[in-house]
Amino acid sequence: MSNYQMIAAAALNKPLAMDMGYARVFFSALGLRLGAESLVDAQGQELTRDGMTVVAESYVHPVTGQCRHYDITDGIAVLSIHGALAHKTGNVRPKSGLQGYDGIQTMLNQALIDPDVKGIYLDMHTPGGTVFGAFDTADVIRRANAVKPVWAIANDMNCSAGQLLASAASRRLVTQTGTVGSIGVVVAHADYEKYLENEGVKITLLHSGSHKVEGNPYQALPKDVAARWQAEIDSTRLQFASKVAEYTNLSLQAILDTEAATYNGQAAVDVGLAEQLVNSADGVAMMADHCRNLTRTMSIGNNTMSVAKTAAAAATKPAALAATEQTTEQTAAVVTATEAVASAELVVTLCAEAGMSDQIAPLVTAKLTEAGVKTRLATLGGMRDALAAADLSAIFPEVSANIDDPATMLKVVLTAATAHGDDKEVTSSKQVQTQASSVKQPDHKSAYNDPSRL
């Protein structure tokens, strides 16, 4: 018996708890493999074999050829962000209530280069998670807004690290029962000293370095260590609040004054952490309308303005002069059209073809022409290959970020090359520049405690 027949035995004539949209995809794919000629849904709508093929292939990314890790509704990619958030889980979809920041970035990058996606919608229900990975992921979301609109909805929760990610979106929605906020940091320390003593167990930690065993669970947390940790927590909270303030245009003091409180529904809008109260069933359609209007405005806005200006100018000048200027303007229009700034969609396509999707955001922001984008990608490709040949691939992100600043770029390369010549492992020029400074104290608490949680 083939695997498909086994799947059919488990799926056909059995009740399934499955989303109707995905059910069409699933049964189209299964039906094709079982030789079915058509698929009829509960409403009597029939899909022919060709139609089943189209539906089945809709789950495959048109650029990467891999399965899409999100659903698309009316041109909007819906990215589910559910459960606790953690660093480097290796999973795209939530697993046992845990979702990785790396998975979120993978979904986001897929959607950015997907030609069928016009906007990205973060459907969030998360209490937060680890600090590790949170800030970088928020920055990635923020950069993505330069390529395609990114919205976030608290459906029904984006708290703490979830609030950080949502704040990076260009628009933030909340349901009537949605909860947002909790802009603070917590660290837990477990003290088993008394318990072990009662059990007749004594743990001895032999160590070198006075800070090596700080925060171990076999003794009470010393006051000086607690004070030092508190300072680190306060610093992380300030970093957290600063990011939210930067993303939302709220004042830093206003964010700090929340004292990590949470807000529900309309209260979230009133305090500025959300912008609109919506029904969760309407959010995607609202974003789809926004993207359609955005495209329409971009298509006709400049043309309408140009016609109005031309008409006003012609009305105040002699006919011959107006005719001459009209001809000049038409010629200029041809030149302008030729030298038009490359659209975000075109940049996405060119970067994907060049295998440099990491350059999408900076190239969109640079507002280059199509020729300019191609030239920049060719230059970056040559630099990438040259650095790889010199075993300096690790500094390519830093070099590419400074391509418009030759002096800084040269300094980065020379610094890294010098370190490489001294047989040091190079990950960035900053690593080399700080090697002469005092040695940083190790991260003592990570050996015994969970990482700081947002």
TrEMBL record:
<feature type="region of interest" description="Disordered">
    <location>
        <begin position="422"/>
        <end position="454"/>
    </location>
</feature>
<keyword id="KW-0378">Hydrolase</keyword>
<dbReference type="GO" id="GO:0006508">
    <property type="term" value="P:proteolysis"/>
</dbReference>
<keyword id="KW-0645">Protease</keyword>
<protein>
    <recommendedName>
        <fullName>Peptidase S49 domain-containing protein</fullName>
    </recommendedName>
</protein>
<dbReference type="InterPro" id="IPR033855">
    <property type="entry name" value="Protein_C"/>
</dbReference>
<dbReference type="InterPro" id="IPR002142">
    <property type="entry name" value="Peptidase_S49"/>
</dbReference>
<dbReference type="GO" id="GO:0008236">
    <property type="term" value="F:serine-type peptidase activity"/>
</dbReference>
<dbReference type="Pfam" id="PF01343">
    <property type="entry name" value="Peptidase_S49"/>
</dbReference>
<comment type="similarity">
    <text>Belongs to the peptidase S49 family.</text>
</comment>
<feature type="domain" description="Peptidase S49">
    <location>
        <begin position="145"/>
        <end position="290"/>
    </location>
</feature>
<keyword id="KW-0720">Serine protease</keyword>
<dbReference type="InterPro" id="IPR029045">
    <property type="entry name" value="ClpP/crotonase-like_dom_sf"/>
</dbReference>
<feature type="compositionally biased region" description="Basic and acidic residues">
    <location>
        <begin position="441"/>
        <end position="454"/>
    </location>
</feature>
<feature type="compositionally biased region" description="Polar residues">
    <location>
        <begin position="428"/>
        <end position="440"/>
    </location>
</feature>
